[in-house]
């Protein structure tokens, strides 16, 4: 609220009023809020239900350590005994293992179809020909480089040994250079190379005819036949580590791609190795990490590659008889375990993205609703500044979002979802707090682009579901592909939806691994991990939050106040109050064309406006200077000229009435004056302030009844609350006028304020408006001629966007109503005598109505005296029967009809 005598209300008064409005709105939408809060609650319960069904399926004998029931002590009582010896291969991984078995260390050997061959991608002449893939005879390739080529040849030669025999099958496999192309597991309790049914490879420099054979390998309590195939190993020299890295990268398997893959067994850079120094870098194939990206290097069959290099160097120093034997690898003992899958972590990233981001359309539609219903402008008219609006609106949405997210996390934790319970709550709080701030800022920025709630709602929910689906089926694959450039991941995370998805993805991965391995989820120390993307997400979201908030405020400042983009520079060049601009020569020159077409009173009003602007006269409350509004044509229709170069000066204490048929441009004029639409050309000044650049200051001295009616839900007979709902129609209109006068505004716009009221209520309303005219300017639009005569000091009649005439009611009736209306009703046999009587009174009289003995004539005032009319009628009564007669002066309604018809006829002809 604003008081022109005491200045605008304080910041906190405005903030308190806006907060009360928001709380009232929240109270009215309690059912919507309940539905909003219930969405994450139902989703969490759904995940719990899925988890229960999955746990029921997992809690079956096939997913437990094997058991057998028998009389263990010979006392006749059978007992259930579980252990590794009673389990099959599937059950064995869940058993307690006090003494884990020993397994030969193996190499990760590429499968036959993936072994490196010469191709257009890798045009190296020393690689095997591609035809070996068709015959199944491709060797495996090992790359090496370093500062000393000769030393490198010696080292590689020492890596390959001839086949070693042993009575112990597993020891024999360990003594040879053996490998497998099976996928490694989380643990080495049971290496899949020995129970997957895939062959083992024995790497040698040259394979003989009898180099493929089968052996019996003990696996738990079983004996399995294991096929062992000799594979030729081909070491290839490269000139630099860059060449090695390039070749490895080109042949790397990217996910489950079907392109040609050229995998290398391993690569070695011996660097500056010599007789006194051993320095080597080992490349290994990391394709075989599990989906979580946390597979230990030891389980990737890397130790055997390191052992080969160390053993080769020892033989280089001490001779071939000296070796470092690498006999076996084994796991640590473990307790009995069970299969555990956390579906909140498996599905949570996608589902919870939808849960969090659905707040975006909620905030967006609320902001667009205020714009569409013009609530923001109405509040600014009553003194609300941008500072309190942004503070309270932002804080309001932030509190609502925080309550929503708090309920979300609490629901998930109470029902036991590991996604919430395993990860550090402080990290979750920081993450959600930053993101909802970013999301609110984005909603404020996006609201500037929409003017319709339905459109904003559709676009908002497309963003919700589109972000989740793109994140789950596109972005996540890039994140999990270790070959995808990290820089591009960060670029994609600049889209806030993907940043949200990445953060939730990290929570899901840590909670999934924590649940599976029995460890904690994400902790603050984990943010420094190389593969953890949460730190990048935090930085991106904080920077975007501050940047988007600033841009949103700047755009809102321009959109809501009509300021130019560089408004802050203009404020430095000129003072706030001096808004009048001297008319340009172009405008003065075009006045001659307009003078010929406009009526004299309209021309005089334009000249008056020009003089006011030239003299910088600040006595008028409203000055319109050639104000024009054109709406662009659509669907092939021409442009609509709504307001045609209106010039008008309105002093304080005057009520100006705007008359005109529907579509004349009255509402368009008021919309420009109150800032709802911008003029196409020209401008207007309210309290010496330009509506193009100083709308915010103008709002402090202005009221608008129609907007006040809508703001309190009183428009078209609505009610704002129970107390106002008890008012009669007249009381509601009076309440609206009272609202428009809050803060003692100096300019008030009233758009048909008495429409639909009974005579008593209308008269009561007029009394209120008469009192309100003092010391303020009022512009009134109405279709009631009686209301215009009672309230208005001057009237202007508008037709097709143009001002046709202007003056007080008496002047207009005198100017356009220069005739009397004479009516007489007789029998049809005396109609000619009546017409003869009229012609004697006024030779230039015109008949305007004739029906069943009733005739109506217009008599020019300069040709007739009222006394002569009475005398002629009295004489006529003595000759024939006169049923009724009357003589009336021209009314304002007659003037309106005459001017409107004349202007419309002229426009049609022109």
TrEMBL record:
Family matches, as PROSITE patterns = ABC_TRANSPORTER_1, ABC_TRANSPORTER_2
GO CC entries: membrane
The family database entries (Gene3D superfamilies) matched by this protein are listed as: P-loop containing nucleotide triphosphate hydrolases (3.40.50.300)
According to the entry, every stretch annotated as the ABC transporter domain falls at 622-825
Question: Could you tell me where this protein is found in the cell?
Answer: Membrane
InterPro entries cross-referenced by the UniProt entry = AAA+_ATPase, ABC2_TM, ABC_transporter-like_ATP-bd, ABC_transporter-like_CS, ABCA, ATPase_AAA_core, P-loop_NTPase
Q: Please give one Gene Ontology molecular function term for this protein.
A: ATP binding
Position of the signal peptide: none
Instruction: Name the PANTHER family for this protein.
Output: ABC TRANSPORTER A FAMILY MEMBER 3-RELATED, ATP-BINDING CASSETTE TRANSPORTER SUBFAMILY A ABCA
Name of the protein: ABC transporter A family member 7
Could you tell me which species this protein originates from? Morus notabilis
Q: What is the lineage of its organism?
A: Eukaryota, Viridiplantae, Streptophyta, Embryophyta, Tracheophyta
């Amino acid at each position: 609220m604003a008081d022109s005598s005491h200045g605008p209300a304080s910041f906190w008064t405005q903030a308190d009023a806006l907060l009360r409005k928001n709380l009232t709105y929240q109270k009215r939408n309690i059912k919507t809020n309940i539905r909003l809060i219930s969405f994450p609650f139902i989703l969490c319960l759904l995940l719990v239900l899925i988890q229960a069904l999955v746990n029921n399926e997992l809690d079956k004998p096939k997913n437990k350590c094997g058991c057998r029931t028998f009389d263990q002590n010979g006392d006749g009582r059978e007992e259930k005994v579980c252990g590794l010896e009673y389990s099959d291969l599937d059950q064995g991984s869940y058993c307690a293992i006090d003494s884990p078995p020993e397994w030969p260390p193996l190499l990760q050997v590429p499968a036959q179809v993936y072994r490196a061959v010469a191709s257009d991608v890798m045009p190296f002449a020393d690689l095997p020909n591609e035809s070996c893939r068709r015959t199944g005879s491709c060797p495996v390739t090992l790359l090496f480089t370093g500062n000393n080529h000769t030393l490198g040849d010696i080292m590689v030669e020492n890596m390959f040994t001839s086949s070693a025999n042993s009575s112990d099958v597993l020891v024999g496999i360990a003594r040879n250079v053996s490998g497998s192309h099976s996928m490694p597991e989380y643990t080495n309790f049971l290496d899949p190379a020995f129970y997957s049914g895939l062959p083992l490879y024995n790497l040698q420099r040259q394979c003989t005819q009898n180099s493929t054979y089968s052996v019996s390998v003990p696996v738990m309590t079983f004996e399995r036949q294991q096929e062992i195939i000799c594979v030729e190993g081909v070491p290839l020299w490269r000139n630099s580590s860059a060449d090695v890295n390039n070749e490895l990268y080109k042949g790397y398997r990217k996910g489950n791609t079907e392109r040609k893959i050229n995998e290398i067994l391993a690569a070695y850079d011996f660097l500056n190795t010599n007789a006194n120094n051993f320095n080597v870098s080992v490349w290994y194939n990391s394709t075989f990490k599990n989906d979580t990206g946390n597979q230990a290097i030891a389980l990737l069959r890397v130790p055997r590659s390191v052992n080969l290099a160390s053993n080769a160097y020892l033989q280089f120093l001490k001779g071939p008889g000296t070796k470092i034997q690498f006999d076996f690898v084994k796991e640590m003992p473990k307790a009995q375990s069970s299969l555990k899958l956390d579906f909140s972590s498996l599905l949570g990233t996608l589902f919870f993205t939808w849960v969090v981001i659905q707040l975006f359309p909620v905030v967006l539609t609320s902001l667009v609703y205020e714009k569409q219903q013009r609530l923001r402008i109405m509040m600014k008219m009553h003194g609300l500044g941008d500072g309190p609006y942004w503070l309270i609106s932002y804080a309001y949405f932030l509190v609502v979002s925080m309550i929503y997210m708090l309920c979300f996390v609490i629901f998930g934790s109470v029902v036991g979802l590991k996604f919430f319970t395993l990860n550090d709550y402080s990290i979750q709080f920081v993450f959600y707090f930053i993101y909802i701030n970013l999301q609110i800022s984005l909603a404020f920025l996006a609201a500037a682009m929409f003017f319709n709630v339905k459109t904003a709602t559709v676009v908002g929910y497309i963003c919700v579901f589109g972000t989740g689906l793109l994140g789950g089926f596109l972005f996540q694959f890039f994140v999990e592909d270790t070959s995808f450039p990290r820089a591009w991941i960060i670029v994609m995370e600049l889209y806030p939806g993907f940043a949200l998805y990445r953060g939730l993805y990290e929570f899901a991965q840590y909670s999934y691994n924590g649940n599976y391995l029995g460890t904690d989820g994400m902790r603050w120390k984990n943010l420094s991990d190389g593969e953890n993307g949460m730190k990048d997400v935090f930085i991106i979201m904080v920077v975007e939050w501050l940047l988007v908030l600033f841009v949103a405020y700047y755009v809102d400042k321009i959109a809501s106040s009509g300021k130019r983009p560089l408004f802050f520079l203009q404020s430095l060049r000129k003072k706030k109050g001096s808004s009048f601009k001297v008319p340009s020569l172009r405008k003065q020159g075009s006045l001659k064309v307009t003078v010929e077409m406009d009526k004299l009173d309209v021309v005089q009003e334009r000249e008056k406006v020009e003089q006011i602007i030239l003299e910088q006269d600040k006595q008028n409350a409203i000055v319109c200077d050639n104000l024009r509004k054109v709406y662009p044509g659509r669907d092939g229709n021409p442009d609509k000229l709504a307001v045609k170069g209106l010039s008008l000066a309105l002093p304080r204490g005057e009520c100006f009435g705007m008359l005109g048929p529907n579509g004349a441009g009255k509402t368009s004029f008021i919309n420009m004056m109150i800032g709802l639409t911008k003029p196409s050309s020209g401008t207007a000044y309210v309290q010496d302030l330009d509506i193009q650049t100083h709308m915010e200051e103008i709002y402090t001295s202005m009221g608008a009844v129609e907007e006040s009616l809508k703001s309190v839900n009183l428009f078209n007979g609505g009610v704002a609350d129970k107390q106002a709902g008890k008012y009669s129609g007249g009381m509601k209109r009076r309440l609206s006028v009272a609202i428009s006068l809050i803060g003692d505004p100096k300019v008030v716009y009233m758009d048909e304020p008495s429409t639909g009221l009974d005579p008593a209520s209308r008269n009561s309303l007029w009394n209120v408006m008469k009192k309100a005219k003092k010391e303020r300017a009022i512009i009134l639009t109405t279709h009631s001629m009686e209301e215009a005569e009672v309230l208005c000091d001057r009237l202007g009649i508008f037709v097709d966007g143009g001002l046709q005439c202007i003056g007080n009611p008496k002047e207009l009736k005198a100017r356009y109503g220069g005739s009397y209306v004479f009516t007489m009703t007789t029998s049809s046999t005396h109609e000619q005598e009546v017409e003869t009587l009229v012609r004697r009174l006024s030779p230039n009289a015109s008949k305007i109505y004739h029906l069943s003995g009733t005739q109506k004539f217009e008599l020019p005032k300069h040709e007739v005296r009222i006394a002569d009319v009475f005398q002629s009628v009295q004489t006529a009564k003595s000759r024939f029967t006169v049923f009724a007669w009357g003589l009336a002066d021209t009314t304002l309604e007659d003037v309106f009809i005459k001017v409107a018809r004349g202007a419309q006829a002229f426009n049609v002809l022109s």
